Amino acid sequence: MSRLDKFSETVTRQVARATSRRSLLTLIGGAITGAATLPVLPVARAQTHGGGHGGGSGDHIAPQTTGNPQDPGDQTQCDYWRYCAIDGFLCSCCGGTASTCPPGTEMSPITWIGTCQNPADNRAYIISYNDCCGKSSCGRCLCNRNERDRPMVRPQANNDINWCLGTSSAIYNCSTAVILGVALEQK
Amino acid sequence: MKWLAVSALIVATGAAVTAPAFGGVEAMPGVADPLRARQNWILQCQGCHRADATGTPQTTPTMAGVVAQFLHVPGGREYLGEVPGVATAALSDAALAEVLNWSLIRFDPGHVPADFTPYTPAEIGRLRKKPLRTEAATVRADLLARFGATNETTKKTGEDIQ
Fold first, then answer.
1. I need a surface site. Which of A47, A86, A133, B88 has the fewest CB within 10 A?
2. ipTM
3. Is A180:B42 a contact under the CB 8 Å cutoff?
4. Quick check: B47 and A156 CB within 8 A?
5. Does the domain formed by B31-161 have CATH 2.170.150.70?
6. Given B56, B85, B90, which is nearest A166 (Cβ)?
């Protein structure tokens, strides 16, 4: 027992000689600060951020509904029916709406056009994905749905390219989904 | 009696005005279903050519008021079937022939020849087998240069139609 006492005494005295009370405070302070910064690191943010590939978004945006039973769904969510082939940030989350651009951006007249099925009446509607251009990427509500999307060799039906064409700026901000009309019944 | 004559005149004028309008929609040569042709235009062409076919100078040539002039120059009719946007469109030969005939009449009626022979699915099927690639712009420029030479006939045809 006395040997153990001796050993502890030696170690304690060594620690006391080699360190100061201030260094202990530094250590504790560092640990507290480190614990506080840990959730701020990019790794932690990626986890809370749900987004990407049609998985919805972690941004806390108030739901936007038209209130029209013919146009159901939340326009700030990737699963809104008109977004069946959208690839990019939803203008609804960026100061615009599903069919208008945020202030300060310009709507591209050159677009890619497809069809989406409206769950309210099960009819196909012709949808034009007009990009909004002129400000840097909005960065909110990233969606990537690819119904009838074609590979890059068919650029007219590909949603991976930047459709900011025919505008004064080619800088992409966000995407809209404008209804052009009801598609004809397939025979 | 005078009243009768006036109303008869009004009815006759109305009929004369409406008849060509209705006839015009139905009498699109080579277009079996104008609504279907318009939808194919929207889905396959409009994204780049714009709804009114005015295009964008740097990327997509203007079709409105221009496209049917190709029918007046040698090689122009073939060019319209071989140009990449037409030849590689994701449409059947029949649907492609229909939308091509439709767009000629819809966007450049003034230049469609009076004796215009509509494109047939067989003709389109043959032309699209050898699509133009990077040389499309050069071929187009050559054809456009010939427009001037045939301007007289084009103008006349335009007046005939209208």
1. A47
2. 0.71
3. yes
4. yes
5. no
6. B56
